[in-house]
Structures are given as structure tokens and as C-alpha cells.
């Protein structure tokens, strides 16, 4: 990092994997100067890596990186790179995360940080040993309506929290012609929808309510086989007609019963959490419903800029009111002038980037971190063990997370 004559700070950015998420990270860094001008930050896109030559070229010609390589190790060895975004497939997350920590690079990594609890713990230990700042791609927690929900819980506006219901329902694998990409192979993805979607939902619960202490679960694989992905069409959105069928090695659907612990305001509350990648109807219905003795609140990503809020018993107009996101919620005012003009998915990643770089700069910030990733991985790994053993599983507390505390 370099402090310039005008008082701004230049920070060198490295990118590993130039897919959709890598593009999104790059745009998020570039937009920091517009959404958060007080940071006085000038991100410099220095070095990107991708083994696919066309993507490496795109990093330079389209995204604006100064140089590109085929090997991620060249990014980590670059002395002009201060922070690294790790946007590779899941099976490389732990390997690259550990390497980034050992190279002394602060890193922003997409979830899951590892294929289960053990790999994620190894990344956390490496980051702690190196003393690097970390951030995790738990982007849904940054929605202004979710920040408002967290505040309502923490201030007691909903009373004593009794139960929570959450869902992560997507249709990206609902078509049985969907290609058998790496996401369906245990060696490459680890578990299925538990790591891909349920991890997001667990983090939403942890962030708004507090840590999950116990879980019991069941899982289901709806499509036991999928057609082999064609060369260059490894995305889970690709459809294959008449391809050779190969086994799906992880779950399409998962459900959990949970009990919350810790010392947060929702300690002792119970709930149900579901995730599916084969739901027909929902496109990206990622939501959480929180119920308390004095009211309740509901949020759904498909209606990102809304919070459904109900008052308590005896309210004159009891029932739900639609509250539009506005300048008083989270970082909404950084992106839009007033309620009714909507924020989008990309904006949530700008907020995430801002929290990450604030922490790197040593300023007050509370980004999701590798301990949050470990906490979520413990729950999803416990759920996988539970589904196999048909039993309740305990989830040990993880220190250093940003899980809900008493007060916001």
C-alpha cells in the first residue's frame, strides 16, 4: 500500500479466477471510490490469474488489470499485490487461502472457504498464524433490510425471539439436463447444497440472531445422475442434450432443525432451515423469517429492497406492513437517494469490499471473516453427520466471529 501526495491510499489488488464472481469483485473494488469517497482509497488492479487464456486476457483488456498469469502463485508472489480476491472453484479455496495467508496477503474469499469444517479450520489457522485480514463472500448479510432486521432483534423491538424460519431455494439445477459440473462431484465441491446455499443461510442466522448450538438434519438427492459436461461448458447453468450420464455425488436438498445458543438475544430460540438447488418456481428465494413475542420480520432476496414487519399483539392494524429500504437502513444511502429506487446484488459486494478494505487499512470495520466461515462450516458439516446418523449434533462455539451480540 502507498500513501499518495494528495492523502489518498493506493492498494494493490490481485484476483484469482476471472469468472463471473471475479468480475464482480473487480467492479466492487473499482466502485469503492464512488460509494465511499471518505476512504480516500485508490484501488489498483495489479495482477489477475486464470488458467484459461481467454479469461486471463479479459482481465487485462476488459477489467483493467495491469498483467495476468495462468498460475495463481504468480499473483501471490507479486510484491505490488496487497490484497487478493479468491474466486476459484470450491476445491481450490483451502489450498489458495492457505497459500495467500503464508504469502502475507490479506484475502477476500468466496464461500465456502473449504470443503467442510476441517479444510475451513486449516484456512482459519493459517490466517491467524499469518495475522492477515480476511473477508468471506457472505453478501446477503449486507442488504440494508437485513441490517435493519439485525437491529430490530438486538434492540428488543421484536421482543424475545422464539423461532426462526429460513430458506435458500434456487432453481439453477432444477432441469435434469443440467450439466454435471464440479458442483456435483464430492472431490471438487465437498457437500452439495449444504455448502453452496445452506452456508449462506446459516450465516444469516448467525449474523442477525446468534450462533446455532445444535442441529438435526436430513438430505435428499433428487437427480441421481446428470449428463457429463461438455468441454468448455462446466457451469451448473449449462444444459446438455443426450450426454453420457454420470452420478451426482452430493445432496440437492437439505433441511435442518436448529437450536440457538450463545449469549445473544435469541439464545434458546429454535428454527427450521431449508435449502434446495432443484426447486421449481423460486428463482433465488433466499430469505429469513424471525418471530418474537412482540412482533416479527420477514426478508426475501427476491424482494431485496423490502422488509415485511409486523407489530405486536393489540396493534391497531395488526399484520404485516411492507417497509421499503431507505436511507436509515444499513448503507442504502451510499447507493440510492431514497426509498423506491432499488439497490442490486452488485451493490452488496461493494459493501462487502468496503468492509474488507477498511479492516485492511486498520480502520473500524466488521467484515465477515474466516471465523464466520468456520462457524458456518461447523454447522453444515454437523448437518451432514446428522443426516447420516439420524441424530442431533452439537456445534461448538467459534471465537472471533461477527455473530449477533447484545447490541449492534
Q: Name the CATH superfamily classification of the largest domain.
A: Dihydrodipicolinate Reductase, domain 2
- Poorly predicted regions: none
Corresponding CATH architecture of the largest domain: 2-Layer Sandwich
Number of strands: 18
Structural class label: alpha/beta
Q: What summary fits the major beta sheet?
A: 9 strands, mixed
In angstroms, what separates the terminal alpha carbons? 31 Å
The assembly state of the depicted protein chains is: single chain
- What is the count of structural domains? 2
SSE order in H/E notation?
EEHEHEHEHEHEHEHHEEEEEEEEEHHE
- Name the average pLDDT: 94
Give the radius of gyration.
Answer: 21 Å
In DSSP terms, counting alpha (H) and pi (I) runs of 4 or more, how many helices? Answer: 10
Specify the CATH class of the largest domain.
Answer: Alpha Beta
Strand portion, in percent? Answer: 15-25%
Strands of the widest sheet, in order across it, are 17-16-15-14-8-13-12-9-18
Percent of residues in helices? 25-40%
Look up the CATH topology of the largest domain.
Answer: Dihydrodipicolinate Reductase, domain 2
Shape category: globular
